[in-house]
Write a structure and sequence with these properties.
By secondary structure, the protein is of the alpha+beta class. Helix content is about 25%, strand content about 40%. Strand 3 and strand 4 form a beta hairpin.
Length: about 170
C-alpha cells in the first residue's frame, strides 16, 4: 500500500508523505519514533481495534490492551459472543488493524492476526492488567472483577505489518 499527501509544513508544498507497510518490527527504542512507540505501547490505556464484517465493512472500537513484549503480541479482553460482533468478525476474518489516537506527528498503524486465546487467565488475574487498569475501572465505578466478568474473552493479536510514513 502506498499513498502520497502533500507535506503542509513545506513552504513550496513540494515534499510528499509516502506511506508503506513493512513487516512488523518495533522501531529502535533509542530513536525518537521508537521511544514514542515503546511509551505508547506501555502507557496508553486504549488502542483502536478494527475488525471487518462479512460484507467488508470495517468496525473500529477503542479497546484496553497489554503489549506482551515476550510474545510480541497484544492481549485484549472482549465481551462474549452475542454482546459484541467483534468475535464473529475475527472468526470470519482474523485480519485486524490497530492504531493509537493520532498525536502531533505520531502515526502508527499495525495490521495483524487475531485469535481467541484459551491460554490467558481472566484479566483480573493478570498482574500487569491490574496495575494498568485499576485506576481507570475504579473511576468508572467498577471493580476489576466486574470488568473481567464483562469482558471475559481473551484475544491475542500477532502484529504482521506496520505502516511507515516518510517525507520525501
Amino acid at each position: 500500500m502506498s499513498s502520497q499527501l502533500p507535506d503542509e509544513a513545506s513552504p513550496s508544498g513540494g515534499s510528499m508523505i509516502h506511506h508503506r507497510y513493512v513487516p512488523f518490527q518495533l522501531p529502535d527504542k533509542a530513536s525518537p519514533a521508537g521511544e514514542s512507540v515503546a511509551r505508547r505501547l506501555h502507557d496508553e490505556l486504549f488502542i483502536w481495534l478494527t475488525t471487518v464484517d462479512e460484507v467488508g465493512t470495517p468496525h473500529p472500537l477503542p479497546v484496553g490492551f497489554l503489549w506482551d513484549e515476550a510474545q510480541s503480541t497484544l492481549l485484549i479482553y472482549s465481551a462474549p459472543e452475542g454482546e459484541r460482533d467483534r468475535l464473529t468478525h475475527i472468526r470470519q476474518n482474523p485480519r485486524v488493524a490497530l492504531h493509537f489516537d493520532f498525536g502531533a506527528g505520531d502515526l502508527m498503524v499495525i495490521t495483524g492476526e487475531a485469535t481467541v486465546s484459551a491460554d490467558d487467565p481472566p484479566s483480573d488475574q493478570v498482574p500487569a492488567w491490574r496495575e494498568k487498569y485499576q485506576d481507570f475501572f475504579s473511576r468508572m465505578g467498577m471493580t476489576l472483577q466486574q470488568a473481567s466478568a464483562a469482558a471475559p474473552v481473551a484475544l491475542r493479536i500477532r502484529p504482521l505489518m506496520r505502516l511507515v510514513s516518510e517525507i520525501g
